[in-house]
Amino acid sequence: MKLIYVFDAYCGWSYGFARTMADVAHRHPDLPVEVVSGGLFLGGRRVPIRQFGYVQGANAEITRRTGAPFGENYERLIADGDFVMDSGAAACGMAALREVAPDRAVRLAALLQEAFYLDGLSLSEVSTYRVVAQRAGLDGDAVAAALDRVSAADDFRRARELGVTGYPTLLAAVGERVVTLVAGNASADEVEQRIGALVS
Prior knowledge:
By secondary structure, the protein is an alpha+beta fold. The chain is built from nine helices and four strands.
């Protein structure tokens, strides 16, 4: 069995789920986890954040349900409403990080979201990936170089093939069968129960 974690770095609910995902990975260190970037803010949804009037309310609900904090620098970044979330750029950045340290993809996804939701760093800037690399103990030059090679297309194609349309989604692949463990939010204990039901 392996887990497939489909998230979007600019998705607040994915950010809220990061702690659960880290706990699940910690409990099952021998269970492979494939991390796939989805495309929440692409095309016509790649617009100034002010056009998503529900952001502040949604963030409050995310904090209430998951405990995930939103930093002052993030609040400053989005305060004037001009910031544009680009899931394509974020997915490329995640692909570059994953290429440099594939076995640490769950942790890197969490660090990437912390860079945005705590530190207010744009996921469209190469400098952000250098910061994330440094925090992860990776070579920032290697990550920056990988950004020139990678594409978001494979991730988006993989998410479509899996039938994922909402984030976060956690799947379990058991042989040829793919089972949804989480679509939205769940605790680590809830995920544990669902994994246990699959292997019992």
